[in-house]
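[step 3/7] fold_predict: job queued, chain A
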Amino acid sequence: MVRFLLRPSVVPAWSTALLALLLAAFPAQAFEASLRGLSIWWEVLFPALFPFFVISELLLGFGIVHFFGKMLDPFMRPLFRIPGIGGFVVTMGYASGYPVGARLTAQLWEQRLINRAEGERLVAFTTTSDPIFLIGAVSVGFFHSAALAPVLAAAHYGGGLIIGLLMRFHDRHAPASAEAKAAAPRGWKRGRFAEAIRAMHEARMLDGRSLGTLLQDSVQAALRLMIVVGGLVVVFSVVMELLRQTGGIGVLAAAVRLLLGFAGVPAALSDAVVSGLFEVTLGARAAGGAAGSGLMHQAAIAAFVLSWAGLSVHAQVASLLSRTDLRYKPFLLARLLHGFIAAALIYALWGWLGPAA
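[step 4/7] structure written:
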């Protein structure tokens, strides 16, 4: 009987039933948590992500992505085993924050510009925090220290690039995509700019939509995606509150305190880790508010939380990847490894870039 209940096909069913019972037991708390999640979506995520989603759709329609693909192929293929077109995803992902990298990767897959292995490599290291959130919200807002931004950015984005270099070995026997095979030989040869312009023009002609139609389609696609993102944020806000009401958060925090003790990190930061496992904003805020734990340790936990990204972002990425053949497991392992690498980089770089340096 126990073996049957633990089957992968059965676990979601009884988990959903348990969640429904908890909603019935704590309706007021669940309602308040829903409002908090909705507030985060409307006041923070919608204005931050919606313009980037619309712009990314427009850039794909205009062929700008194909232009970047031709220009960046000499760098992306040797370093990350990704077609040059992935350079656009790297740029937009790092500038716009999660889950823009996953959205663009899914779009490239849908257009058959990358295959599964290349997509899994790409989404693994382009899911990062945007610089505005890292500097403005985390460094200045939560830690009240602009001087913390350099070391935090170096650890977070540097860790992401390290993940990209490691992921080049992921599924290394998989064949290259047709886009990669059709790319020019390695090296920056003369005439590459003209080739990039030609590729952009051909992509625009192949798309064929007028400016008005393209703009309308871009807004509609971005709105559909934002509704999915908002729903996931609300759901995880409710789940986290229900776990808090039933004591599940306390049990998890106790386990995290033991692990932090073995690592020599103050146990007071366990709440930040637990919150960050579910939602990146809550975890980063808790890390900044853990006064007396040592700024270096607080920054290390914040770097871990930013790089792990929280289950709320994981759910958003999983939703985006569900329409492709890209697997979630490589992304999950990459996020976990990125978190540990970023935290380790905080300790390694603190003497050079930390506020006390």
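[step 5/7] annotate
Confidence is low (pLDDT under 50) at residues 1-6, 184-188.
The CA atoms of residues 38 and 234 lie 6 Å apart.
exit 0
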